[in-house]
Amino acid sequence: MRRETYNEFRRLCQKHSLAATHQRQKIYEALVSRPGHYSPEEIYEQVKQDLPSISLATVYKNLKTFVHAGMLCEVSPHHGSWRIDANHHPHHHLVCTRCRSITDLDFDSLGPVKLRGKLPSGFRLEKFTIEVRGVCKACTAAETKQH
Amino acid sequence: MRRETYNEFRRLCQKHSLAATHQRQKIYEALVSRPGHYSPEEIYEQVKQDLPSISLATVYKNLKTFVHAGMLCEVSPHHGSWRIDANHHPHHHLVCTRCRSITDLDFDSLGPVKLRGKLPSGFRLEKFTIEVRGVCKACTAAETKQH
DNA sequence: AATCCTTTAATAACTATTATCATCTGATAA
DNA sequence: TTATCAGATGATAATAGTTATTAAAGGATT
Known about the structure:
Largest sheet of chain A: 3 strands, mixed
Radius of gyration of chain A: 19 Å
CATH architecture of the largest domain in chain A: Orthogonal Bundle
Number of helices of chain A: 5
Oligomer: homodimer
């Protein structure tokens, strides 16, 4: 692991009062040291090369721990549940990060996406999708109620 | 079901050579007749009120059929696998609709999202996420090879 | 070294989804 | 209409992805 990455890892663990274990170090490294966003299974396979006895559950648990601590974030808030879109008109999505509800947002509510420069060579563009993430009315209400 | 929706449904089934069954009609209606994007389980519960003997497998199978035919589309291409993001700098994602790989796109590659008008009242905005969907280099190569 | 609290590995349990298969239905043509 | 049959359905077994449980190990503090 690069010294810089290592230091960052130690700092983050300290900040969130997490033990800086060997396993966590390797999991963190597997995430940061290469491009792309891998599944827990893929991360497990990667870490296994250094720590053959690591358990898949440990990978899951630490990923959750990291996300919970805010050290990492989820790419999609909808893993674990398949959602279908029957709206054929161009539109965007409002996504509640609490209850994960999805509602449509009129296409014209947002300005068009503008491409500056080029996409990586070979990538064939199909469309842009904008997700507006935040907290929906119901969840906001539920939260303020509690205080 | 509204006559308009019903006609649209018949038309779509015909276009894709699918039998216009009761079950499909009710599933389609459950999707189009209300706002929001529901999980297969939620759609199943909804359809069950009209067709108590419908099977959950039928719901899944037809949703897949509809998506495959292009009558509907998936909200997120990453249901079924949890993806983690370790990149803390603001950035966007290139998503391959074939192999589902995700790669980072520099924040400045795209212009800023502009909000025209207002979001629905009560929605507390956290951030905009842009997904650039298309076919990655590897998958494009694999496809052209076959022809 | 003894104690306490956290983390780990192994694996059982659970949830979402898909496959299998016997039965039934819708579309077509007689 | 009815007969026919490819395609669709319902029941349920199987699988994949994820989470919970628990005994043992680690490591910090006294």
